[in-house]
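Worked example 3 (structure in, sequence out).
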């Protein structure tokens, strides 16, 4: 029994000694995060007085049917000379925020779109540009959670995970609203007072151009934001959009509704 115990002790000592000679940097093996598919941000610069803009909206609906609304995150930015601001008689969807974006990109006509912040393009070219963007992978992944609070406030938690290389850029958060009934000039020159507008940009949550982020591969950065909703918005139709961009364009985008289907039914 003593000989067996002695042999066991010697084996354990040898194993411990062998382990002690492994360099610390060789004991852990880095595993690169899995590649993340790219979602595409489509910024549709539109206006209620734009007779061709409903055709761009139809193109977005076709693209959503083809690729899915998770793959293509569309935002209708009412703005520019054909945008319409609210007056005492009619609901307008144009905002100063939208006008600032329209002017920043030096846009000259409507409808016109930016695909992942690339070169402005007519809606007839969106499908080709989107197919090209969908072939890419994203260097970051975005998790977005929304918790409704009291007094018309919502708390937004965003986590940006580094997937491929080190990413420096900006995180932008927007509020968009669906199913808004407001007038729209139509391609035949008539005015439709019961037109249903989708994914309308309502506000920027963290500033007009977002906030700086720096995330390394294999690590994550998190942000919390609290926003008070306008009484003019229907909470059941609201969503939050989060995207990361830099000088090369939009790197990843995601979207989540404020209320899930069960909460809306209640």
């Amino acid at each position: 029994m003593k000989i067996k115990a002695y042999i066991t002790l010697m084996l354990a000592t040898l194993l411990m000694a062998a382990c002690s000679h492994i360099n610390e940097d060789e004991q852990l093996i880095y595993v690169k995060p899995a590649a993340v598919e790219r979602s595409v941000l489509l910024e549709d610069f539109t206006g209620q007085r734009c007779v061709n803009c409903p055709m761009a909206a139809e193109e977005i609906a076709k693209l959503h049917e083809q690729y899915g609304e998770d793959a293509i995150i569309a935002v209708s930015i009412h703005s520019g000379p054909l945008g319409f601001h609210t007056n005492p008689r009619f609901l307008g969807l144009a905002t100063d925020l939208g006008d600032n974006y329209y002017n920043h990109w030096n846009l000259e006509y409507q409808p016109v779109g930016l695909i992942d912040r690339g070169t402005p393009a007519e809606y007839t070219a969106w499908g080709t540009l989107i197919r090209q963007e969908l072939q890419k992978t994203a260097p970051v992944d975005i998790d977005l959670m929304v918790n409704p609070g009291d007094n018309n406030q919502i708390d937004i938690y965003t986590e940006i995970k580094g997937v491929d290389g080190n990413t420096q850029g900006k995180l932008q958060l927007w509020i968009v609203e669906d199913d808004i009934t407001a007038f729209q000039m139509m391609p035949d020159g008539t005015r439709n007072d019961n037109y249903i507008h989708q994914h309308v940009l309502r506000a920027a949550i963290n500033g007009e151009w977002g906030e700086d982020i720096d995330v390394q591969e294999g690590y994550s950065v998190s942000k919390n934001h609290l926003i008070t909703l306008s009484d003019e918005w229907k909470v059941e139709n609201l969503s939050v959009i989060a995207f990361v961009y830099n000088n090369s364009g939009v790197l990843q985008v995601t979207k989540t509704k404020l209320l899930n289907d069960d909460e809306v039914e209640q």
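Notes: Residues 1-20 have pLDDT under 50 and may be disordered. Residues 36-265 form a domain with the Immunoglobulin-like fold (CATH 2.60.40.10).
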